[in-house]
C-alpha cells in the first residue's frame, strides 16, 4: 500500500473498534444447542455453537452471508439436501458454506460439540436471513448471558 492510499484510512477510528473476547462454554443448557456470541461488526460476526449429544439442526440456508464452521471440540457431520454427507470433521477442521447452499449438521462424536462460526456478510450489509428448507423440531438457547466480549 502506498503512503497516499494509507492516509485515506482513519486508523484511529478503526482502532477504537478493536474487540477482544474470551469463550467459556455454558455449563448446562436445557435445549439441544446454545449459541455463545463472541464479537461482530457490520461485515462479520463470530460465535460458538455448543451442542450436546443428539444435537442437530434442520436443513436450511442463509441469504446474504457465507459461513465458515470449524470444530473446536467433538465431531460434526455436515449434510446437504437428501442427507448427502458434505463432510465429517474433528478438531481444527471445518467447512465453508456459501450463501444459498442448503445444509444441516449434527454432533456425531462421543464428546459434546463446540463449533466456531464465522459469518462474512455480503457487501458489508451486516444481515443474515436464515431460511428453513425443512421444519424445525427444536428451539435454540441464545447464550447471551455467556457473552464475554469487551472492547479494548
List descriptors:
152 residues; mainly beta; Jelly Rolls; six-stranded mixed sheet; three-stranded antiparallel sheet; 2 helices; 43% strand; globular; disordered C terminus
Can you write the helix and strand succession as a string?
HHEEEEEEEEEEEEE
Rounded to the nearest angstrom, the distance between the terminal CA atoms is: 26 Å
Q: Predict the CATH topology.
A: Jelly Rolls
Count of helical stretches: 2
CATH H-level name... which superfamily?
Answer: Jelly Rolls
Main beta sheet strand tally, sense and closure:
6 strands, mixed
Which stretches are low in confidence, meaning pLDDT under 50 for 5 or more residues running?
138-152
What is the correct CATH architecture? Sandwich
The whole-number mean of residue pLDDT values reads: 83
List the strand order in the largest sheet: 8-5-10-3-2-12
Radius of gyration: 17 Å
Question: What this model shows, in words?
Answer:
This protein is mainly beta. It has one domain (26-151): Sandwich (Jelly Rolls), CATH 2.60.120.10. It has 2 helices and 13 strands; from the N terminus they run H-H-E-E-E-E-E-E-E-E-E-E-E-E-E. It has helices at residues 3-6, 11-16; strands at residues 19-20, 33-40, 44-51, 60-63, 65-73, 76-79, 85-89, 94-97, 104-107, 113-121, 129-132, 141-142, 150-151. The strands form 4 sheets. The protein has a 6-stranded mixed sheet with strand order 8-5-10-3-2-12, with no helix packed on it. A hairpin with a 5-residue loop joins strand 6 (76-79) and strand 7. It is globular, with a radius of gyration of 17 Å.
Amino acid at each position: 500500500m502506498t503512503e497516499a492510499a494509507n492516509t485515506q484510512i482513519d486508523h484511529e477510528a478503526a482502532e477504537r473498534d478493536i474487540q477482544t473476547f474470551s469463550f467459556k462454554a455454558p455449563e448446562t443448557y436445557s435445549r439441544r444447542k446454545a449459541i455463545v456470541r463472541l464479537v461482530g461488526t457490520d461485515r462479520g460476526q463470530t460465535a460458538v455453537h455448543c451442542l450436546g449429544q443428539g444435537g442437530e439442526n434442520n436443513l436450511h440456508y442463509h441469504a446474504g452471508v457465507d459461513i465458515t464452521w470449524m470444530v473446536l471440540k467433538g465431531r460434526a457431520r455436515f449434510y446437504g439436501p437428501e442427507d448427502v454427507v458434505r463432510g465429517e470433521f474433528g478438531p481444527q477442521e471445518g467447512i465453508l458454506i456459501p450463501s444459498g447452499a442448503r445444509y444441516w449438521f449434527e454432533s456425531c462424536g462421543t464428546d459434546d460439540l463446540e463449533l466456531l462460526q464465522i459469518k462474512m456478510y455480503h457487501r458489508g450489509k451486516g444481515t443474515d436471513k436464515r431460511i428453513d428448507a425443512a421444519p424445525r423440531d427444536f428451539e435454540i438457547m441464545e447464550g447471551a448471558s455467556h457473552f464475554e466480549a469487551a472492547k479494548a
